[in-house]
Structure formats: C-alpha cells, structure tokens
Specification:
The chain has 127 residues and is mainly alpha-helical. The chain has five helices and two strands. It has a two-stranded antiparallel ribbon. About 17% of the residues have low confidence.
Length: 127
C-alpha cells in the first residue's frame, strides 16, 4: 500500500481501563497537544502527566462510584471533579464559586480539566 506524499497518519493507541469497562481509543496527537500545554505551565512533562492521570482517576472514580466516591475525595479533588463534569451544584456544596475554584486549583489542575473532561465524556461517563 503506497502512501500519498504529505499525508499524515494519525497515531492512536488503546488504553486499557481496568475496572472501567471497554478500552478507549485515544488520538495520541490530541493527547500529546494537551500534555504539551500542561507541561508549558511549568514543571515539565512528568508533572503534567502526573496531574492529568490523577485527575482522570478521581473523575472516573466519581463517575463510577457516584455521590459516595465524590464525598470521599479531598476538597481539591471535589472541586476539580465538579469542574470536569460541569457541576456548579457540587461546587456550591463545597463552598466554592467558579473563580474561587480556578484560583484554588492552580494552573496544572485547571489546564488539565478540559482534557480530562473530553476523555471522560468520550468514555460516556456521567456524574
């Protein structure tokens, strides 16, 4: 099979989500772009990846475990998960407004939120 000149082949990988149902196909170019944005916030690729993975994990936990799982999270995790799922009602339950939430989370977490939200929504996770 011949490749056309200038055609780019998108790299995709499968991420196994043990305990979370079916595997998900992730567009690596899109994920890499998101991680690059996070890394640019400071601290390098490792910190950006660490924050992304942690926030993704707590968001999945909340989606899977519902109210009980969300209630067991730290205040910062609750605030971040509320923003990931666009749940203002949850923010008010922990006593935060949207500006306060953004300020309290800091740049790593707030930069990760859109990418985590996109990921959990692509997995059809709702909380």
């Amino acid at each position: 099979m011949s490749k056309k000149k200038g055609s780019a082949r998108k790299k995709k990988i499968y991420i196994s989500r043990a305990g979370y149902g079916d595997d998900v196909i992730v567009d690596m170019d899109r994920l890499k772009a998101g991680l690059d944005v996070l890394a640019a916030a400071g601290g390098g690729d490792e910190r950006a990846e660490e924050v992304f993975q942690h926030l993704l994990g707590v968001a999945r936990d909340a989606a899977k475990g519902g109210e009980a799982a969300w209630s067991a999270q730290s205040t910062g995790e609750k605030v971040a998960v509320a923003l990931v799922f666009n749940r203002f009602d949850l923010l008010t339950r922990v006593g935060y407004t949207i500006p306060q939430a953004i300020e309290s989370l800091g740049p790593y977490w707030t930069d990760a939120i859109p990418y985590v939200a996109r990921t959990v929504l692509s997995e059809k996770r709702i909380f």
